[in-house]
Amino acid sequence: MRLQNKVAIVTGAASGMGRAIALRYAREGAKVVIADVQKDAAQQVVDEITRGGGTALAVLCDVRKQGQVQAMVDKTVAAYGGLDILVNNAGVGKIIPFLEITEADWDWMFDINCKGLLWCSQAAARQMIQQGRGGKIINFASQAGRRGEALVLAYCASKAAVISMTQSMALALAPYKINVNGIAPGIVDTPFWDKVDEQFAQLLGMERGEPKRKFSASIPLGRISVPEDVTGAAVFLASSDSDYITQQTLNVDGGNWPS
Ligand SMILES: NC(=O)c1ccc[n+]([C@@H]2O[C@H](COP(=O)([O-])OP(=O)(O)OC[C@H]3O[C@@H](n4cnc5c(N)ncnc54)[C@H](O)[C@@H]3O)[C@@H](O)[C@H]2O)c1
To answer: What's the domain range around 231?
Structure first.
């Protein structure tokens, strides 16, 4: 087990990739905090981990709210005695034509994808610095952060910001032996992409499911990814195997970028 005796917070762990990472971390021996705005779904992940013999706790937390974020870290420390790993996975996106982007759309995506990531990282880093034993922070970027897309401006910009924030945070936290890295997934079959599919289909005059099939057809490894595809990278970046790696954002996209 590669994360034995480690304590991890995974934000957005009630669904999709966050859920898959939480389940895998628990199997690797970590005690896992499932932080999400979806209370019942978060508890279901905890129950699944507990049934498998692991240790987990659900914490209701909107990453946009600094008070809730600090409470999430405090509850983690109270339950498990410290914090070693933060996965900033919570994120949202919407497909919108450039001329139709509203202030509300922009704020929603940047507040969750960037501001929330900052609050969580600050609160976790303060705890890790106080502990004095280093730590790992893993940020969820996207292939969308590597380039612009006509219908995806705000989401692409928010994920490009995540790549940049990963670099700055890594430099700020290097003196404390806290590694900060990112993961940039490609097209992952989650509830997130179901919504994206619906929005693309409406805008492009396609049937539901067609955008997912069309965009997936060009992935060099020949298939859309499933949430479990990112868990290997998430374990590596959380384990001591990556102690000399920081500032990096790793593409886990079946070779889709550059394309
Ligand atoms: N699915 C993809 O194709 C894809 C590709 C690249 C990157 N990503 C990124 O990966 C991450 C996970 O995506 P997913 O596809 O698993 O999504 P998902 O929609 O399945 O899960 C996201 C989770 O985040 C939670 N969440 C949303 N707002 C929150 C908030 N304010 N506070 C706390 N939790 C909140 C949701 O409740 C949900 O449980 C996101 O950051 C997403 O942008 C997704």
So the answer is: 7-188+227-252
Separation CA 252–CA 229 (nearest Å): 8
Residue 56 inside a domain? The answer is: yes
Does 175 map to a domain? Answer: yes
What value does the CA radius of gyration of the chain take, rounded to a whole number of Å? 18
* Residue bearing the CA closest to ligand 1, atom 30: 62
Q: Is 203 within a domain?
A: no
Structure tokens at 240: 């001591």
What is the phi/psi pair of residue 31, to 5°?
A: -90, 130
Q: Is residue 174 part of a domain?
A: yes
Split into its structural domains, the chain has a count of 1
155 is a catalytic site residue: yes
With 0.85 as the threshold, say if the pTM is over it: yes
Taking the alpha carbons of 127, 129, 135, 140 in that order, is the dihedral positive or negative? positive
Q: Which of 25, 155, 176, 244 is catalytic?
A: 155
Q: Going residue by residue through the chain (259 aa), what tens digit of pLDDT does each one get?
A: 999 999 999 999 999 999 999 999 999 999 999 999 999 999 999 999 999 999 999 999 999 999 999 999 999 999 999 999 999 999 999 999 999 999 999 999 999 999 999 999 999 999 999 999 999 999 999 999 999 999 999 999 999 999 999 999 999 999 999 999 999 999 999 999 999 999 999 999 999 999 999 999 999 999 999 999 999 999 999 999 999 999 999 999 999 988 6
**Residues near ligand 1 with C-beta < 6 Å?**
11-12, 14-18, 36-38, 61-64, 89-93, 112, 116, 140, 142, 185, 187-188, 190-193
CATH number at residue 162: 3.40.50.720
